């Protein structure tokens, strides 16, 4: 059976639906990304999946068990990496893992046997006796990831796992996450980093205002929703230039601040034109997942 099946999931807050009929199914060993702007319903969906929030209607099967009816049993088969680290600062690295393992009823001997492998996975070998207070933010995040694997979960749920980390720490965590599907672990990932989703996820669902507005592989979403090439035009008069010229060269364009985003199938005519515009700078690149995300959910700021 699939590690996670959602069918018609709905959650209301008063008269508003935070989650409005969400359905998807995860395959074993798949990394599945759940993307969306603030308020899209990602966190509510994740809380419903874990049995922390009761849905208004719909059904959830987590590791073969119905949620919320058997949520506690299901969560015993799940690893969770929360948005904020919740390690105990008064304990050492190994003590944090030991105490966490006891919540699952694991014998101390079994936990101690798993600790070296988990610390090696997290790049923290030799840090077993180090106090949490002396770990960097990246080290704490990697330890939280290792802790989530202590119970040998069928599914790993990660809520924005690399927020606030420097590029080196992010890349190290990406390397560790890429290895998990090969071990048969299913990964459910929420993130605001489009490059993270594009690198890690086999499939992606984009949510907006409680609905799934697109679902597929990163490459398929880009191909289906956006022109293949993007030219970003910069300068104080980029907006004026776009109003007068962009429609002639681009299939579609948007202006945000001092940047005009031009979406094209063939870039050469626009590039030739821009070469003669000394007051403008430009960047030519392939379309990416962020372009799709912004097209489907808009550029306005969500609080």
Describe this structure in words.
The chain is α/β, with parallel strands linked by helices and 303 residues long. It folds into two domains: 212 residues, Rossmann fold (3-Layer(aba) Sandwich); 60 residues, Alpha-Beta Plaits (2-Layer Sandwich), CATH 3.30.70. Helix content is 35%, strand content 28%. The protein is built from eleven helices and 14 strands. A hairpin with a 2-residue loop joins strand 12 and strand 13. Helix 3 packs across helix 4 and helix 8 crosses helix 11. The longest helix has 14 residues. It is globular. The model has no long low-confidence stretch (mean pLDDT 94).
Number of strands: 14
SS summary, helix count: 11
Kindly report the average pLDDT value: 94
Largest sheet descriptor: 6 strands, mixed
- In terms of per-residue confidence, which ranges show pLDDT below 50 for 5 or more consecutive residues? none
**CATH top-level class of the largest domain:** Alpha Beta
What's the CATH topology name of the largest domain?
Rossmann fold
CATH superfamily of the largest domain: P-loop containing nucleotide triphosphate hydrolases
Please tell me the total number of domains.
Answer: 2
Q: Which architecture of the largest domain does the CATH hierarchy give at level 2? A: 3-Layer(aba) Sandwich
What Rg is obtained from the alpha carbons, in whole angstroms? 22 Å
Please give the share of residues in helix. Answer: 25-40%
Order of SSEs, N→C?
A: EEEHEEHEHHHEHEHEEHEHEEHEH
Structure class: alpha/beta
Distance between the termini: 38 Å
How much of the sequence lies in strands comes to: 25-35%
General shape:
globular
Strand order of the largest sheet: 6-7-8-3-9-10
């Amino acid at each position: 059976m699939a590690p996670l099946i959602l069918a018609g999931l709905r959650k209301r807050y008063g008269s508003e639906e935070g989650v409005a009929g969400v359905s998807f199914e995860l395959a074993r060993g798949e990394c599945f990304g759940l993307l969306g702007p603030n308020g899209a319903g990602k966190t509510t969906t994740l809380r419903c999946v874990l049995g922390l929030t009761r849905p208004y209607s719909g059904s959830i099967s987590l590791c073969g068990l119905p949620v919320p009816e058997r949520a506690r049993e299901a969560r015993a088969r799940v690893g969770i990496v929360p948005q904020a680290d919740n390690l105990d600062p008064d304990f050492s690295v190994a003590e944090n893992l030991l105490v966490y393992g006891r919540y699952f009823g694991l014998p101390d001997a079994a936990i101690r046997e798993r600790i070296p492998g988990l610390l090696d996975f997290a790049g923290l070998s030799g840090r077993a006796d180090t106090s949490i207070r002396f770990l960097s933010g990246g080290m704490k995040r990697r330890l939280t990831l290792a802790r989530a694997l202590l119970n040998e979960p069928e599914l790993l749920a990660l809520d924005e796992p690399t927020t606030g980390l420097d590029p080196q720490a992010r890349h190290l965590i990406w390397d560790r996450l890429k290895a998990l599907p090969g071990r048969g672990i299913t990964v459910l990932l929420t993130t605001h980093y489009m490059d993270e989703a594009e690198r890690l996820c086999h499939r992606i669902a984009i949510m907006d205002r409680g609905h799934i507005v697109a679902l597929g592989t990163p490459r398929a979403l880009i191909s289906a929703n956006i022109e293949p090439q993007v030219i970003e035009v910069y300068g104080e008069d980029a907006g004026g230039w776009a109003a007068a010229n962009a429609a002639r060269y681009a299939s579609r364009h948007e202006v945000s601040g001092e940047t005009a985003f031009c979406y094209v199938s063939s870039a050469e005519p626009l590039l030739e034109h821009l070469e003669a515009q000394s007051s403008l700078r430009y960047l030519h690149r392939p379309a990416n997942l962020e372009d799709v995300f912004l097209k489907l959910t808009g550029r306005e700021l969500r609080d």
